[in-house]
Records
---
Amino acid sequence: MSTIERFETNKRMSRVVKYNGILFLSGLTADNPDDDVQGQTRSILAKIEKYLQAHGSSKDKILTAQIWLKDIDRDFAGMNEVWDSWLPEGTAPTRATGESKLAAPKLLVEIIVSAAV
C-alpha cells in the first residue's frame, strides 16, 4: 500500500498531498489580489508549476483541473487566454470551470490541479 505524504500542512489543510504517484494540489490563488483576472491567473499558474516541479511533476503531467471564477461571464475569456498559452500543446487535462464566491472579495480566480508524478 502506498504511503500518503502531506506537505505544507496545518490543522485545516495540506498544500500538496502525494499518493500512489499522483499529486493533489489545494486551491491556489494569486499573490496580488489587485491584479486583473489575467494577472491573477498567471500568478496561480506560476505557483502550480513551482509545486509540481518541487514534487517531481510538471505542467504536461496535469491530469485534471478545477477552475473557480468570481464572475464567469466577465472573466472566462481572459482566464482562458492565459491558460491556453501556458499549457503545452497536446497536454490538456480534464477540466471544469465554475463560478463561485471566493474566500476574499478581490480574488477573481482559484485553481485546483492533480498531476501524475
---
Amino acid sequence: MLASHADRDRAVDVLRAGFAEGRLEKDEFDRRVSRVYAARTVGELALVVADLPQGPAPHPGPVAAVPQVFLATPRPAQNGRAVGSAVCGLLCLLTAGLTGIPAVVLGHTARAEIRRTGEDGDGLALTGLVLGWLSVGGWALFWLLLIAVDVLD
C-alpha cells in the first residue's frame, strides 16, 4: 500500500520519540528521517521504525511486521436495535403499518444506546423513527377521519 503524508508524519513522530529517549544518535535520526520521506510504501516505513517502540512508552512483546501506528483503526460496532428499527420501519409499507410502533420504540432505545456507547447506526435508527412515526401518524389520521365521517352521518 502506498504511504500517505499522514503515514510519513506518524513514522517521523516515532523517530522523534526514539531520539528523545536516547535510542537514536543525531546522525542515525537524520538518516532515518530522510528514508521516511523517500519511502513509497507503508512497508518501507515500517522497516524504518521496526526496531523502535511505537511512541514514548516501551512497546511490550515482539515487534509486528506492520507497526500498530500504521494499521487502520477499527470501526465501532453497528447497533442491533438501530438495524431492527430500520427494518421495522421499512416493513411498515408491507405490513400496513403494523411494525410502526416497534420501529419507534426500537429507534428511541437505539439512539439512547448509541449516545451512551458510541456505536454506529444513528442513521438507521433515525430512518426507523421517521418511517415508524409516519406510519403511526397515518393510522391515527385514518381512524380520526373514519370517526369524523361516522359522526357526521
---
Amino acid sequence: MSDNAPGGVAPGAPRESQSIRLPEERIEALREWAEAGTGLTAAARVRDPDGRIALVKTSWSDGWVLPGGAVEPDESPPTAAAREVREETGLDAAIDDPVVVFEQSYVGAESGAVAFEAEYVVYAARAAGRIPDAAGLGVSPDEIRAARWFEAVPTALHDGALLRPYL
C-alpha cells in the first residue's frame, strides 16, 4: 500500500475518527481531491526552541489551525507538511515523526450521508525565526488571515477538542 493511500500513511501513529459535516456544495468541491487526488491532508505541529507553537488563521477556519493542506499527487506527506508550513508561516520546518492520523468521514449536511473518506496526518516539526505579516503568506490573497507563535495553545482552536491532546 502506498504511503498516500488511505490507511497507508503513518501506520504506527495513533488514529482518531473524525466526522466532518459540510454543505453539499462544499462536499462536491472536495470530491475530486478525495476520489481522483490523494484524499490526504498533512499538517505540522511546529515548535520553536523555546517551546512555542506556530498556528495560522485561514479564510475557512473558525479559529487557529496547524499549518497544513492537501498532499499533491506524487508528493510524500512529510514533504507536503514542510511545503505547507513554508507557504502558510514562512518558516522552514524540519519534519519529524507523525503525531496522529485523523480518519475523516465527509458527511453531507443536508443528506446526512458519508460522501467520501480521507486522512489528515499531523507531524511533529521544528523551526525557528520570525513569522512574517499574513499579507505575504499563503498561495492566494486572503488565504491566511493571521499567523503567529503562541506560548500556549489558544482557546480559539479550530477542532480543538480533537486536536488539543496532540499539541
---
Amino acid sequence: MVVRIMGLDPGLATLGFGIIECQTGEAGGRSLFSVIDFGAIQTEAHQPLGDRLQTIYADLHTLLEQWQPDLVGVEKLFFYRMGNTIAVAQARGVLVLVLAQRHLPIFELTPAQIKQALTGYGNAKKYQVQEAVARELNLQAIPKPDDAADALAIALATWFDHDRVSDLI
C-alpha cells in the first residue's frame, strides 16, 4: 500500500508543508519513505490580515491540486503567548476549511505526540526532531525552513500511527 501524506505546520507568517509517500514493507518489514516536496507558504507582515489568509487559502489549494495527498496531518495548536495563538488559529481555520472543501481526512497531532513518534521522547528538543526527520527520510541535511522540517515531522508522525491512518483512508 502506498499512501501520500501532507504534513502542515500552521502559521500566519509561515505555514510549513511537507509531502511524503509511504509504502509498507513486505511481511511487516520496515516502511519506505519518499519525500515528494516541502517548503512554506509565506505571507507578509505588512499585508492586511484578510489578504494574508487569502494567500494561505489560494496557495494551499494549489499545493493540494498539485500533489493530491490521501490524507493530511496537522499540528494542534499549543502556544504560550496568547497574541500569537489568535493569529495562528485564524490561519489554521483557513487550512481546515480548505481541507474540508477537498474532503480530505485530517489527522491532528499535538507537539508531544509528534516528538514521541519521531524520537521516542515527548519532550524532545526541536533539533532532535529535525535530526530524526532527516534520518527517517534519508536526507543529507535537515530541511529548511524549520517550518518545512516540522511539517515533514508531522507527516511522518501521521504515518507512524498506522491504526488511525488506516481508518482515515
